[in-house]
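Purpose: get a first structural picture of the assembly so the mutagenesis plan has something to point at.
Setup: two entries, given in the order below. No constraints added.
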Amino acid sequence: MENERLQRMRKTTRLHLAMEAEETLQRLEEFPERPAAMEYFYALFRRISNGDGLTSLAGEGKVIATMCMQVPQELILAVGAHPLRLCSGANAYDQVGAEFMPAKSCPVIRATLGMLKVNYSLWGDNLASIVIPTTCDQKKKACEQLTNMGYPVYSLEMPAGKDSDLARYYWQESVKQFAHDLEGLAGRRLTAAGLRGAIGKVGRAAALFRQLHRLRGNRPPLILGSDLFLVYNAYFFDDIERWSAAVEALTAELEERRQNGVRVTNRRAPRLLFTGSPPIFPNFKVPVLVELSGGIIVADESCSSTRLLSDAVAYDEAALNDMVPAVADRYLKPCTCPCLTPNGDRLRKLVTMAGELEVDGVVYQAFSGCLPYEMERQQVNEVLSERGIPMLYVETDYSPEDSGQLSTRVEAFIESIKARKRRKVRTK
Amino acid sequence: MNKLRRAINNSDLGRFRFYVQLLFFAVLIYGGYLALNLGNQLPTFACLYSDLHGGSCYLLGFQHQMVTPWPEMFGGRGIGILIGLATFVAFFVVFNKAWCGFICPLGTIQDWLSSLRSKLKIRPASYSEPVFQRLSRIKYILLALLILLPMAIGNSFFGLPKLSHDWGVPFCMICPGRTVLPLFTGDFSQLAIDLSSTTKLTLTALGMAITGLFFLGSLVKPRFFCLFCPMSALHYIFFRAGLLRLTKDGAKCTRCGNCYRACDVGIRAIADDLESTNIVKDDCMMCGKCIEVCPEDGCLRVKFLNLPVYESSAEGFFTRMERKNNGK
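Result (structure tokens, whole complex):
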């Protein structure tokens, strides 16, 4: 029996969510020279935020929801289910979560759990499971909380590191078990042909992603970083083939722009690399501020966007006994999540990207409550300052309260980069 | 030129390798029909015991030479031995370890057995890294034995009695090349146990057992025998001189591990070593499977005299995977 209070709460959060989403979208739309192909993504987010959120996507077919990008999507697609990543960026849901979660917990978990709590009755029988890899402590504990709420939860065991053979073996076995259990959850057998097709779909998306990544690094910039966060966020829940088609249209348009010399900002705009806690729609507070202040995000390293998206499965033999471990490898070996130790690959990746894309600075967002990102700040800072790349570290959450203070800091950071560039030009 | 390079990098090296292997198999096993002979110092298992061979393995002659008593070895006959070694090295440096991946008939047979296994949908065995490392020492022990045993025929070690001439070519006696390759010309005579002396009995019986293991092993584990191959150990002494090289640019590596999982001989350094440029390891056979599955532009490369021959690229990776995903 659902009590009246919860129903009221759902009504108000729905309103708040719609307002929040509209505000973010409108701020994005105010930027000049928006690619026409972005319209698909704006419409998609409007549709979802004005309805019941993600539950509205659970219409047809089995849904396997996930709470992390480390859940092998290929396997879910191969058994004919729809993978749906739940991670929420809505302040409205965060408010709900704050009622039963510790004040110091991470806003991503708090908002996601808040969303699941308030929308419990909206999920039909199609929701076969919520799969949560045992990455950070808060996700692990979320498993128990969601089970208590009545959700079917699958905790996908993950090692704490990725370097040893033992970790790789553990993860492969864990994924094999998951593949086996998925058959039961989705009610369909996993076949080699099905998995080959799924690997193909995800591989195509990865190839497109790489194209997009190359184009966004163009000088002068062809598209805003904030717009791209929307594109990557859509990958959470959109049908993968529809997403790929929309991105294909976008890359084609950007390619055209490159040839015609169309750009979204002036040539001297500081080029920035975004890293840290994931910007999840509608919480685009920091990236939008950065780009409003005259910077441009040309690359990013975070789990709501580019992480793992560019990696594709490579199997040797087209049989399940080789393909399933190959899928497992894709989700562990190249991963740069700070829950892994050691995580030197993240530092290497940042340094490589900074060099390749000639960035002028790095913006590091850490959600208060996300200790792994907060703790890695020092290492990142060290490798960047060795190379003379300035970094802005922002600790924030989903509430709009710190916007004023944030914008002062972001503006100052961007101004200092501009001044540095001017000095450099003069000394030349 | 760029177009050609792109086409090469997008190509399917595995298929190319299959045909090259077929060609060399024909040359080395049936070359005799065409009066073809590439010499007796080849750095690969082309077997003198196979009558129509189009060239033969260096190890047979090398073991014979090791019988030479020391005074002669350091005298005039030493020059002959050195010339043999120099010929071997000259052959080797041209293709480096690609002799194993593209030319060796025993390697080719193992690859055929592996594809048979794959068609039968039998799961390949995989070893953990420590097991690979332990196994890879065996080939050095075999190499040492195939030098020391013949030496003990012509010379006395520490005043011990000299060995009988039955120990002449100890490795050939246990090498599956001797028993398997002649089969392809219809010669089954090597599939026998020699009862003429205890030494020969022991060695040929061991040889028969190893032949059985060769077939069984390579049906279970890709390139099973290569892990124990003393020729590969001998190669590794000279690999730095190789004109053909496998190089890695650590800065471009994301450690995604695709190369490690593709590697038949389990070389982990290919994925995790970010420092070495020349990435050839003792078990490597330069088959290029790692390059095919590497999605980073120019991270892994095969170079001949610093000229890139084949290199990893995102485009090539996705082209090949798409072909595979479509079941081709």
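The beta strands of chain A are 63-66, 82-85, 127-133, 153-156, 271-276, 296-301, 361-367, 391-396.
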